[in-house]
Amino acid sequence: MKLREQWNTRAWPRILLAFAVNAAFLAVMLKAFAPMWETNDDLFISKFFDGQMAHKTAYAPFINICLGWLMKTAYAALGDGFNWYSGAQYLLLYLGFTAITWTLLRRYRIGPALVMTAVLLFAFGTDCYLSMNFSKPAAVGTVGGMCLMLHALRNHTGKTQKTPLVLGMLLALGGYVWRFEEFGVCALLMACACLAALFEIGKENRGLPLAARLGKYLHYLAPFVLLAVLAVILFAVDLYAWNRPEAGGFRTFNDTRSLFLDFQTPDYAQMPEVYDSVGMDESFVYPDRCPGPVDPAPHTG
Known about the structure:
Strand order of the largest sheet: 1-2
Shape: globular
Distance between the termini: 76 Å
């Protein structure tokens, strides 16, 4: 009886259960299976932070520079003995799924909430934890964070809950710095829930004057507007950092990498200056067309 009373009146039982369920699932996945990266992009990104690209730097492709600074600091301060890049990915995935579980436990009875959590974890969590890609923490962090925000603004108390609102915003921004494309797509999908809530607010306050109803709408939308503003600020910081003179070499390297790896490799005749800039002549690009062996000296230094 005491446990049931605490479940109905206290916040900690649901929080503890959400963390425990997701921790157990993650432990089973890592113990029973061998996780791997879905593509070589993440392995490539991590090399910028741990020093395998000649020295530790925050200027890694794909991700926001703010996350790059954080990763560089982690490797510099805490050493290279642990893969902090992968650890950060798993942390964001775990927190994102835990946030979704907690939201379900707050809005539904324990049985249906756990069933929905199980479906979510087996349908999406398995792939996220075992076939890692930096897009997946971005998506899960964004959805988990916005779930917290939605619950904080519309819940059983009838009041805005500040702690889950702030934590949800931070979690969603954590998704943004991993990959802004996934943040944008997931935010648009979660906007459907925002529209449903706005419709309910309109029905509940139909008798109020227009100004009062607009105030209700603005009160609900303000945190999401703030989230969008913070995302724009992070984008501006990233843009500024990559346009600084010290980032010129990294920009050139990333542009060349993109031309070679992100798209089908173009013919040598299309961009000879790019090939020559990285020490690759036509005989190196097309060794099968050469009458004799390729001399490796120009390409190895």
